[in-house]
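**Reference record**
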Amino acid sequence: MLELMMMPFLAALILTGIHVYLGVHVVERGVIFVDLALAQIAALGAVVAALFGFALHSPQAYVFSLCFTFVGAAIYAFSRLKDSHVPQEAVIGITYVVAAALAVLVLDRIPGEASHIKEMLVGNILFVSMEELARTAALYGLIGLFHYVFREKFLLISRDPEAAARAGVNVRLWDFLFYATFGFVVTSSVSVAGVLLVFSFLIMPAVATMLFTDDCRKRLFWGWGLGALMSLVGIYASARFDLPTGAAIVCAFGALVAGAYALRSFFPAPARR
């Protein structure tokens, strides 16, 4: 059982490391479903590649997914207008629905579409290879370094874009850089873990920690720890009870959020800085 659990657990640790950090930004920005939308757009790119005869996890499919997510990143970066009456979450929801519908239309033209839909949703984290993990970890390390170097700009824009604009920061440019690097992460993550698990890694640990603290460092450290723990719980349950691994991890994260809300009822809300 330990050998069966080792590779998916390493993959979950790598995904937790970058997604919890990005999740803090996403929740601060109030664009909760941007990861789900970008993941769906990346999945759409992969199924379009499959329509042209490429394997779902081939390098060509990855390039298709990356190009599609860059288009999504540009849409999200340029749709946040200060004087617009349309909330950005509405734009994100529209792109998600359209991308999902297009994926269904494309899959309808591909033989064995049911297996493609299942893999698109829950991924293949149980069968991830060490080479794929090494490539993913290297990419996430570079993106994490980029965000660390420019962390003050990213955090200021996430928390107060108007203050960032007054400070002379090109908000639209840095928004695009945020969503573009986000697109790199999502494209790689979807091929490993699927749409649902990617969303869970991004949002659920961030939400659970934000119920108790407003400090970004505490959110990160608690999010990383809880993400790793819930991943282990989900993978163990999958191996012990012969359950689909991705779905089991998603349910473990769901239990985490439910438990956090139950525990939160006994503590006062954190003071907003």
